[in-house]
From TrEMBL:
EC number(s) from the headed UniProt entry: 3.6.1.1
Family: Belongs to the HAD-like hydrolase superfamily.
Cofactor(s), names only, from the UniProt record: Mg(2+)
GO terms, molecular function: inorganic diphosphate phosphatase activity; metal ion binding; phosphatase activity
Any one Pfam family match given in the protein's UniProt record, by short name: Hydrolase_6
Protein name according to UniProt: Phospholysine phosphohistidine inorganic pyrophosphate phosphatase
Organism listed in the record: Callithrix jacchus (White-tufted-ear marmoset)
Amino acid sequence: MAPWGELLAGVRGVLLDISGVLYDSGAGGGTAIAGSVEAVARLKRSQLKVRFCTNESQKSRVELVGQLQRLGFDISEGEVTAPAPAACQILKERALRPHLLIHDGVRSEFDQIDTSNPNCVVIADAGESFSYQNMNSAFQVLMELENPVLISLGKGRYYKETSGLMLDVGPYMKALEYACGIKAEVVGKPSPEFFKSALQAIGVEAHQIAQIYTFQSHGLQGQCEICSGRHDWGRYRGRCRRCPAVRNESAAGADREVQAQ
């Protein structure tokens, strides 16, 4: 793998994942990964443009940002690209009225959305709300529609909390796909449109971005979500063969490598 000095040539902006890069979620608000608060502060003092890009769908952006601020991070709501606001925009544009299978913590993001007489289903990381009854209700809504629409906030298989690995939305999304014979529309990582919206927010082209994220099974299958190039994967680290700097580690880990150049 090329050193950071080479990978960062021409880079104008950085996309930072949140869970597993800045902090590990869990009881009591989770814990900041050692060195990540300082790494974010150093990035913000540089001339690089910084954007936070997350699939978090158990918390609203307001709650997530407040939690990160309490852990010491310099972050604002306007700096975060998250799937729930993006999904709401799609729902409004297409006059969709969702049946929501989501966590109560993110429900406030949908307060302005008409949910009467649903003509689609939105599924997210619902946690304990992934009961048989709730899954079956979503299944019934989809099966009653002539043209069923299933929108999934991400499609991760699992993620890490302080208590261990947790099932993400992906397995439940796949269950509804299989049962209904449909394909979900993914809003969030690894959707290229999701990353394009993050790049547009900071005015940076794909070939000018460095992305720092965790080694998670969220359906990438070896393909870069920014440029569709192939990843060279190690067990916990990786990069894209075409993008200048797509790395798989914590913010603190990436920061240490940069400082060592």
